[in-house]
């Protein structure tokens, strides 16, 4: 599933490609993608004549800001957008086509068919599902180590599943939680309430650093992710923990191990990321 850096990359690409363009009409080829309004005809009618003012991101959601309306799209596992000329063949698994007045088309393609689209009057979307319970935005300037500790620091929940909880921190997924915990030197099974003030600082810094590096690299292409121009991300070349099972840790040389935690594959270095609090002689990161 695309995580925050991938969705942010898609948003930036779409802003370059379609912001300012007007929707002439919409073709819904797979009705179950549409959730609000549930009727494809009503969905298409609401968007006809609307101009795409800008595209924004909230957590892993894409927000198309229109003329008083906001279209919220979630890519789920393998959803992707692309811009095409109207005369180009429509690829298999294309489920929604936004026909633009300049003769181009914004097409939504989804092999797994798990993606969703909802329309709201702008201003209502933050108080209703699916956005109403989302947690802290880790790249927002307001996201501080103190706020992170305040939000989750009293919980006895293990770090990995807690950081994956979108009501705690929005946008993090399996890849970037593993990478952040590795960089911070924290074991994924550490209870949140066992961290020291210094460890909260390290975790906050690691989350921000990893996410920003991934955004700058255009995201991580593990399976099928590409941006709106069909380009792969490059952060997979910088992964230190995720998907590195059996490879030497780049900090200490110990082999990266993989376990399952909360049903999710979890990658970590058992030498750098211990369950106990680090002692004064632990190697600096």
In short:
With 285 residues, the protein is of the alpha+beta class.
Rg, Å, rounded = 20 Å
CATH architecture of the largest domain: Alpha-Beta Barrel
Strands side by side in the biggest sheet: 2-9-5-4-3
Q: What level of helicity do the residues show?
A: 10-25%
Under CATH, the homologous superfamily of the largest domain reads: MutM-like, N-terminal
Q: How many beta-strand elements?
A: 11
Average pLDDT, rounded to a whole number, is 93
Strand fraction band? 15-25%
Query: Unreliable segments (pLDDT under 50, ≥5 consecutive)?
Result: 279-285
- What is the total domain count? 2
Briefly, what CATH class of the largest domain? Alpha Beta
Q: Choose one word for the global shape.
A: elongated
Descriptive report:
- 24% of the residues lie in helices and 22% in strands.
- By secondary structure, the protein is an alpha+beta fold.
- A hairpin with a 2-residue loop joins strand 10 (257-261) and strand 11 (264-268).
- Helix 5 (174-184) crosses helix 6 (197-216).
- The two termini are 29 Å apart.
- The relative contact order is 0.14.
Brief descriptors of the model:
285 residues, alpha+beta, N-terminal domain of MutM-like DNA repair proteins, Helicase, Ruva Protein, domain 3, 5-stranded mixed beta sheet, 4-stranded antiparallel beta sheet, 22% strand, elongated, disordered C terminus
Topology:
Blueprint: H1 4-18, E1 23-28, E2 34-36, H2 40-47, E3 54-58, E4 61-65, E5 69-74, E6 79-85, E7 94-100, E8 104-110, E9 116-121, H3 145-152, H4 159-164, H5 174-184, H6 197-216, E10 257-261, E11 264-268
Parallel strand pairs: 2-9
Antiparallel strand pairs: 1-7, 3-4, 4-5, 5-9, 6-8, 7-8, 10-11
Helix pairs in contact: 1-6, 3-6, 5-6
């Amino acid at each position: 599933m695309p995580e925050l850096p991938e969705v942010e990359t898609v948003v930036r690409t779409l802003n370059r490609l379609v912001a300012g363009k007007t929707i002439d009409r919409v073709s819904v080829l797979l009705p179950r993608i549409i959730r609000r309004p549930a009727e494809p005809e009503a969905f298409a009618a609401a968007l006809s004549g609307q101009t795409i003012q800008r595209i924004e991101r909230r957590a892993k959601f894409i927000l198309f800001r229109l003329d008083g309306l906001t279209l919220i799209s979630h890519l789920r596992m393998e959803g992707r957008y692309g811009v095409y000329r109207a005369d180009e063949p429509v690829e298999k698994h294309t489920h929604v086509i936004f026909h633009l007045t300049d003769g181009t088309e914004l097409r939504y393609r989804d092999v797994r068919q798990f993606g969703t689209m909802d329309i709201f009057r702008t201003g209502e979307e933050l108080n209703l599902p699916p956005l109403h319970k989302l947690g802290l935005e880790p790249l927002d300037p307001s996201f501080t180590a103190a706020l992170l500790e305040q939000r989750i620091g009293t919980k006895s929940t293990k770090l990995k599943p807690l950081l994956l909880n979108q009501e705690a921190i929005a946008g993090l997924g399996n890849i970037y939680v593993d990478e952040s915990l590795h960089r911070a030197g924290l074991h994924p099974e550490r209870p949140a309430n066992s961290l020291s003030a210094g460890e909260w600082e390290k975790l906050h810094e690691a989350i921000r650093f990893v996410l920003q590096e991934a955004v700058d690299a255009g995201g991580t292409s593990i399976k099928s992710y590409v941006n709106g121009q069909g380009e792969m991300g490059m952060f997979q070349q910088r992964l230190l923990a995720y998907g590195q099972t059996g490879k030497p840790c780049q900090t200490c040389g110990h082999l990266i191990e993989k376990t399952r935690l909360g049903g999710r594959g979890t990658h970590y270095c058992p030498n750098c990321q211990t369950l106990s609090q680090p002692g004064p002689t632990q190697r600096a990161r």
